[in-house]
Amino acid sequence: MSLTHSFDVVVIGAGPAGENAAVTAAYFGKSVAVVERAPVLGGAAVNTGTVPSKTLRETALALSGLRTRELHGVDLSLRRSATVEDFLRHERAVKATEREQTRRLLERYGVRVFHGTGRFADPHTVAVAGPDGEAARLRGDAVVVAIGSAPVRPPGIPFEHPRVHDSDELVDIYRLPASLAVVGAGVIGSEYACMFAALGVPTTLIDGRDVLLPFLDPDVSAALKAAMEQLGVRFVWNERVAACDAPAEGDAPIRLLLSGGRAVEADQVLVCAGRVSRTADLDPAAAGLQVAEKGRLAVNAHY
Fold first, then answer.
1. For the segment 155-171, what is each residue's pLDDT rounded down to a tens digit?
2. What is the pTM of this model?
3. Architecture of domain 151-275
4. Using CA atoms, how far apart are residues 51 and 46, in angstroms rounded to an integer?
5. Distance CA 252, CA 210 (A)
6. What is the distance of C-alpha 13 from the center of its chain?
């Protein structure tokens, strides 16, 4: 039997948006509950997205010596092989600090945290299934949906393979790649391509378009492309991945067959095909909500 708890505000998701919504409501005297499906707080921004990627970028620059090369003619680049622990140690420490700061902030404002998967039972009730089998029902005068997004996983890509990753999984790699193929030259794909190229990893960036980040000013896009090529990134334009042949065992290269008939081989593959909201997991119809393209909730002129 589920226990029912009543709050002024129930927030689904403990990422930056959910944290700010909860703390702001609590600051104005509201009783607030936060539902978080992950065992840790902070959402994708802290655990798999913004914070890890930016920390890894700075770590890559430090380990590669990129910022100090040719300083007064002295080569200060890294002269030993960087291990995966070298690469991820600082990232893990920063994540732990950010998670703890989020926990303390919610605790300071009296926000109650429920860990588990939340689904709408009706427009004002969220049913929470906890990881230990416990269940709760949270009644809220207002419910804030702040669940963020997850990487798109195109069909036909064997993400179960230990050397094929989406952008969330990449922060848990067990070894640095001998070579890397990045599928998708958007913001995330371009950022990770630069990181690994800076570490000396041969990196190929594959995209179905023929312009890097076309939302940028053309001169900026061209300058960024030139800088990435100087860093060692190899671009493959106007191609999409038609098939991915990943060996079940051993360290043989993964083979990507492209739409034009050519193939690209790499030790590891990173797929950056955009992101999509997981709103379908909330049973939005139970709350009278409609889901639009890419999992976005349909709204009216007022919200």
1. 999 999 999 999 998 88
2. 0.85
3. 3-Layer(bba) Sandwich (3.50)
4. 5
5. 30
6. 15
